[in-house]
Amino acid sequence: MKTFFIRGLIFIAFGYAFLFFFYNYFLTGHDDEKYLIKKYLKNKDKIAAIAIGTSHIWGLNFKSIGLEGIALGVGGRDLTECKYILKFLLDQKNNSVKKVFISIGYFSLYQDNYSPDGTVSDTRAFMYNNIPSWKMVSHDYKNYILGKFLPFIQSDHWRIIAIKFFKKLHFKFMNINTPEEHFKDTVIEGHSKMIPLKEVEARVESQHQIHKRALKNNDYYTKAHSLEVLKEIISMLKKDNIELILFTPPYYYKYTELYNKEYIDEMKSEMKHIVDRYGVKYLDFSLDPEFIYNPNYFEDSDHINLEASKRLGEKIHSVL
User: Fold this and answer.
1) N or C: fewer beta carbons within 10 Å in the chain?
2) 98 backbone dihedrals φ, ψ, rounded to 5°
3) Domain boundaries in the chain?
């Protein structure tokens, strides 16, 4: 009986180890971020800047800014996740980071992927998959377990397993590239000559829902929590003599016109308070006339393209 019990424990241990190994190897959620994390760990002694946050961070073009940097943007990323990832990266020995950029959108202070009505499905779970750390955000058991042990939450999971399997067998007809093979830049390369109004309206409404859910769940708790996390990030970076730069990219003018003005004013008021109290920089290009009226500078309502990012990088370089 005792031998049977011991064998059972050994079997379970090996089973979890097997699952964890193949999970990290095959899971496809935000594979571009996983690739960039590996790139950072390999070149941490050369990288001077990290950009992190929502997909709006893709508007940063480090080549134009004149920095050796890496941008880690995921749609819907909240500030708690930014802090978790930054702490992991900056705890690495021999890192050379001197500047950190964090994207701040109109909705950022109300983005909370831990809440029961989390605004982005699986975002935090994939964060745990992409970061090779066993640490967990406080009490975040559900997302942590999903992120570390359950690859099956990703609908595209088995398709990518097949692609990687056949590529290893050198089946050249499998012409779908993995992230390591196709990844070039986080900045979007396309552009739109006209951004449909319905598309802008849908985008704004989806982000209004973030505010509405947060306010419905627990009044202003989400905002208070986000601001507290931001203060913790500021303290963490100051301790390591790293400069923090908060960043809002240009938005197509109709996006701002349709957005709830109270939400915008509230966000900018909080950023002014942060700047005045803690001395961090806040670069706000959301109303920059050089960009916001030119649809050829945008991929969609709130993401600039590669051409615009190069020009924006030159402007950022001039003020840093």
Assistant:
1) N
2) -120, -20
3) 2-319
Structure tokens at 304: 């600039």
- pTM of the entire structure? 0.80
Cα distance between residue 59 and residue 102, in whole Å: 11
Whether residue 298 contacts residue 265, with contact meaning beta carbons closer than 8 Å, is answered with: no
Q: What is the pLDDT of residues 116-173, one digit of tens each?
A: 554 445 788 888 888 888 898 888 887 887 777 755 555 444 555 555 555 555 544 4
Q: Which two tokens stand for residue 211?
A: 């505010």
Architecture of domain 2-319 in CATH?
A: 3-Layer(aba) Sandwich (3.40)
